[in-house]
UniProtKB/TrEMBL annotation:
It comes from Cinnamomum micranthum f. kanehirae. Signal peptide: none annotated. GO terms for cellular component: cytoplasm. Gene3D superfamilies: Phosphoglycerate mutase-like. Pfam families: His_Phos_1 (PF00300). Belongs to the phosphoglycerate mutase family. This is Phosphoglycerate mutase-like protein 1 isoform X1. GO terms for molecular function: phosphatase activity. It comes from the Eukaryota.
Length: 536
């Protein structure tokens, strides 16, 4: 989600008195504002953000609408094209050419994300009847609550200025309403006061510098990308990337629990969920302090088949570094088809894999290239018949890099030989969970933002059950439930404590030349002697 303060507008650089007394609230952009919009438009196109936006939500004031269409709209509108323009020429006396609605996301005007209401004429909007001819392709629907509530501006009054607590409450209603939308990546073009009062309520569970980063005042035409997290089950979106096969092969630890009479002396049982705290709220984090992880359990291995029959088989040397079964390779093919169809393969920056045969076969089968062709001047990801797989070689062309990492192995490559595994002792659940947390923290040393991790059921279960204690129990259960073979589950990892130091690739500092245009309320505090008699 990208929060964007509107571009530079006439009242922002004037005195508090003029913002209070200005009678024409339909104030147009100055030349500096157009430059701000053009600079930000160039930035979002260069960083690739425009290709990812599913929806643009905009406050229904002229300055925000002009900013939104200028940054995220199409190119100049050409007469004769059979689609309405986003903005007609010279809308709001802007002296700007018409903007096309081709090749851009849909635009939706939403009343709830308006600037602080009342007293200041610059924060009063036109009637929707006036807006529609100026911005024909924007949805000004009156049909649903939390969007435009009336053709005329019935929310603004000259007598009373909305207090900050009311703005913050309205902002939280707006963020909760976002969960009713199906879109995943949304640009929100709104106002400094609205953003400051709303965002100040977030980040209390983070390092103070992270909270400060979330809520600091936005400059004109500044863009800041955030990740909105539903900890309370408000939203009910189905994942477009998650994938779960029908078959559930139990990991060795669970299979042993299922047959306790056959368990060896070194085996341990799973611990249950504990310390579940329900905090029914939405929370927000800077997107550059988040990584998207796509967690995958390996496909069915021969050890799964034999261990389900008899857990003692897990101790058999015959199952050393077990490889995939024919059914496992079929599961790999199904998941490969899914990640291609949902577009996930195009977004992956890195594939991390546990250095066991079954995980590596799964990783290269799902996320690798096509069949390898001899004579191509790149090494294959996997040679033909690797691990007695009877599978053709797999190319490393047109796929992300692969990295084998020892720390994400199953219940128990620091050396050429496996010095971590012993025949005498099985790694305890607590040790496995601690290793998992070290692995998760290590991910913050990586620059990649979207990472696939192909690993094991036990490793995932014991690592993930440490997460979600600040969420609704159903969300915690969703995070920590067992993985089926070849299941994929997408998660967002959040850095609340400054472990990572990644810089944002989408954030944009705003006004050029540098400077922070004060919102009208801040300007009033700066010049109290100029406040008019009707201010509140």
């Amino acid at each position: 989600m990208s929060d964007l303060k509107t571009g530079f507008a006439r009242w922002d650089s004037s005195t508090p008195q003029s913002s209070l007394l200005y009678t024409l609230w339909q104030l147009q952009k100055m030349d500096e504002g157009g430059a701000d919009v053009g600079n930000l438009r160039k930035h979002v196109q260069e960083c690739g953000l425009t290709r990812r936006i599913d929806l643009v939500i905009v406050s229904p004031l002229l300055r925000t609408i002009q900013t939104a269409v200028g940054v995220f709209g199409g190119e100049d509108y050409v007469d004769g094209v059979d689609v309405p323009p986003l903005m007609v020429a010279n809308a709001g006396n802007s002296e700007h050419p018409a903007i096309s609605s081709l090749n851009c996301p849909p635009f939706l005007a939403v009343e709830t994300c308006r600037e602080r209401l009342g007293a200041h004429p610059c924060d009063k909007r036109r009637s929707i009847t006036e807006y529609r001819p100026l911005f024909p392709a924007i949805d000004f629907s009156l049909a649903i609550f939390m969007q435009i509530e009336s053709d005329e501006d019935i929310l603004w009054t000259a007598e009373k200025r909305e207090v900050r607590e009311e703005v913050a409450a309205r902002g939280m209603r707006f963020f909760d309403w976002l969960w009713t939308r199906k879109e995943k990546e949304i640009a929100i073009v709104t106002h400094s006061g609205f953003l400051f009062d709303t965002l100040e309520g977030f980040g209390n569970d983070c390092h103070p510098s992270v909270k400060k980063e979330i809520s600091k005042v936005l400059a004109n035409c500044e863009l800041r990308s955030m990740v909105l997290v539903d900890k309370s089950g408000i939203g009910h979106d189905l994942s477009t990337t998650n994938y779960r096969p029908r078959e559930l092969d139990l990991p060795s630890g669970v299979a042993q629990e299922k047959h306790p009479e056959k368990m060896g002396p070194n085996s341990v049982s799973f611990t249950s969920f504990s310390d579940m705290e329900s905090n029914t709220s939405t929370t927000l984090f800077p997107s550059h302090r988040c990584k998207t992880l796509h967690l995958v359990r390996h496909a069915q291995g021969f050890h799964n088949v034999e261990g389900e029959k008899n857990p003692e088989a897990y101790l058999s040397p015959a199952l050393f570094d077990a490889h995939l079964t024919p059914l496992g390779w079929e599961q790999v093919g199904n998941l490969r088809k899914h990640v291609h169809e949902c577009g996930l393969t195009r977004r992956i920056d890195l594939v991390i894999v546990s250095p066991l045969l079954r995980t590596m076969q799964t990783a290269v089968g799902v996320f690798g290239g096509e069949d390898y062709v001899n004579g191509v001047d790149v090494p294959p990801l996997m040679i033909a018949n690797a691990g007695s797989s009877e599978h053709p070689a797999i190319s490393s062309l047109n796929c992300p890099p692969f990295l084998a990492v020892e720390t994400c192995r199953e219940h128990l490559i620091e050396s050429d030989e496996d010095i971590l595994w012993t025949t005498e002792k099985r790694e305890a659940d607590e040790e496995l969970a601690a290793r998992g947390m070290r692995f998760i923290n290590w991910l913050w040393t990586r620059k990649e933002k979207e990472i696939v991790i192909v690993t094991h059921s036990g490793f995932l279960f014991h690592t993930l059950k440490g997460f979600g204690n600040d969420c609704h129990p159903s969300v915690k259960q969703e995070i920590g439930k067992h993985f089926a073979n070849c299941e994929l589950r997408s998660m967002v990892l959040v850095d609340r404590s400054l472990i990572g130091l990644d810089l944002s690739t989408t954030n944009y500092p705003g006004k050029v030349p540098c400077g922070l245009d004060l919102s009208s309320d801040v300007a009033q505090k700066k010049h109290p002697e100029k406040i008019g008699p009707n201010s509140v």
